[in-house]
Write a structure and sequence with these properties.
The protein is mainly alpha-helical. Helices cover about 55% and strands about 10% of the residues. The protein contains ten helices and four strands. The chain has a two-stranded antiparallel sheet. A two-stranded antiparallel ribbon has the order 3-4.
Amino acid sequence: MNWDEVRKEYETSKVTLAALAEKYDIKIGTLKSRKSREGWSRGSPKKVASKNKKVATFEPVIENDDLNDKQKMFCLYYIKYFNATKAYKKAYQCTLQTADTNGPRLLGNARVKQEIERLRAERQQGLFLDTKAILQKYIDIAFADITDFVEFGREEVTDDLGNPYEVNRVRFKESVDVDGTIVTEVKQGKDGVSVKLADKMKALEFLSKYTDLLSDNDRKRLQDEKLKADTEFVQERTKLLKGAQKDTGLLESLISAFKARNGT
């Protein structure tokens, strides 16, 4: 099934889900589930004021028409609680004693069991997609570079008499050209405009715990970024201590050893 083609037709036409399901021979429940999970929409996308993007959430849809309404409700409640007694009690609105007897029995029904397994697999797939989205966001934060957001350097200008001279310049890139989801603050003060990015060190720390999920290239970039961040931290600490006119002999020895160990 070419889902990209189905989605494109839905988003670029006025075709109903029922008509689309019939055309591509898809169960209407499957189509609704796909539409909800992937966020299919029509028309121009609405602008979202919030900086945080929500990842897809699992919204189960019962597709098995061989089940009656009570059995479908049982499947949905079971996926939520993973407790046959509790699921049966909520679905059938019965006593705890009845639910304790009939819940496990219904769980053994072949059709019910098949539907629960399908819902479980779909839920796991949804959680996997959520995990990938979260991991990618931390990668974006950890590997962000200030030059992704601003351009700076020397520029030649002329004075009122036409004499050329050089000045330092800083130019912010247009908001449409940058990833605003990793910008936590844009502020204009007496010293000009400043941009604050999401915490790079926290992102590096997070990724360090999940290196097995990273590609070989991202693992190498992670090592380089961590080394760079550690070196910059030691250098900045040294500057602060020197500024306070403290004895930094021991600290400088540690820095030298650190650089020697890491080949920097």
